[in-house]
Amino acid sequence: MGMSDSRRPKVLIVSTGGTIASRYDPVGRAMTSTATGDQLLAALGDLAPSTELTLDEFSNLGSNRIDLDMSFRLARHIAVRMEEDAVCGCVVTHGTDTLEESAFLASLVISSGKPVVFTGAQRGIDASDADGPRNLADAIRVAASPSARDLGVLVVFGGRILSATDATKVNTWHLDGYGSTSFGTLGEVDGEMVLIGRRPMMCPAVNARDIETRVDLITLAMGADARLFDAAVASGARGIVLETFGRGNATPELVAAVRRATNAGIFTVVTSRCAQGRVLPVYDDGGGRDLEDAGALFAGRLKGPKARILLCLALSHLPRSKIVDLLMTFGM
């Protein structure tokens, strides 16, 4: 895996921590992210592809500790490294808790056509049946594959190749912990073969220089009133994402709260708490049509955490009309 010729294309490995880099601490009786990037690569063993690699240790944290500012810095850092001629692609090792958010944020920030692939693991590096080495080897093969160019940022997990727009954690502990919420996989890794079955709809990069962090995510439950929404507004939120019922429905109390927030210049974005499907302004009596009339914007097929990422980036530099246009790109 050593680099013998600096002119040869290489895959950049950006390590951030997470379960893939974690060991069990018997004293603290907890998993702890302690493995270095070099140890991650050494754990590949016989699975190691012949691709030349270069290591960039960005952090060593469980992804529950990665916040918006850090994720944005990670995306900007990768974007800069992708400009290097010697780098043909990138693999990011990341904890699975927030991998989908970091991957989606990166997909909005990075405009390079070179493959950028996020991966992680459900079992620690010291487990006898650790899944991290296989996931990392698969991700390296995808990052080095010419067929993976111009697919946007990807997530590779359990042999599946997923678009960052649709990839989500679907199980807390199964080895196939990541799946797609909308259109299924883009392809798969079968041994040494990278097989691409379809190409995703691409969305424009958001040329943001910083990120707005004062955006809250609220999931509705039966009988939801405006208390949590009003509390978010009172605490200084610049935007609120609502994970609503079904097709994009709320309650009359929340519709009134959204209208007050709109009048105060605060953005509300509507998503669904359903695992699949798009939101549309269809129903009245507290439903999506009333939310739209109150000034809410609809996020199409995006789920709550990703709609929040999009709004955080958009609020940092875009006027309302452009934010509406950006959300429309995800309505298909």
Please provide a written account of the structure:
The longest helix has 14 residues, at 68-81. The protein has helices at residues 37-42, 68-81, 99-109, 132-144, 227-234, 252-263, 288-293, 304-315, 320-328, and strands at residues 10-15, 22-25, 30-33, 53-57, 87-93, 116-119, 154-157, 160-163, 167-169, 178-180, 187-190, 193-196, 215-219, 239-244, 267-272, 297-298. The chain is globular, with a radius of gyration of 20 Å. The protein starts with 9 loop residues before the first strand and ends with a helix. 47% of the residues are buried. The chain is α/β, with parallel strands linked by helices and 332 residues long. The model has no long low-confidence stretch (mean pLDDT 94). The chain folds into two domains: 10-196, L-asparaginase, N-terminal domain (Rossmann fold, 3-Layer(aba) Sandwich); 215-328, Rossmann fold, CATH 3.40.50.40. The strands form four sheets. Strands 4-1-5-6-7-8-11-12 form an eight-stranded mixed beta sheet, sandwiched between helices. Strands 13-14-15-16 form a four-stranded parallel beta sheet, sandwiched between helices.
Main sheet: strands, sense, barrel: 8 strands, mixed
Q: Per CATH, what is the topology of the largest domain? A: Rossmann fold
Physical arrangement of strands within the biggest beta sheet? 4-1-5-6-7-8-11-12
Number of helices: 9
- Mean residue pLDDT: 94
Q: How many angstroms separate the termini?
A: 42 Å
Give the low-confidence spans. none
- Globally, the shape reads globular
In CATH, what is the class of the largest domain?
Alpha Beta
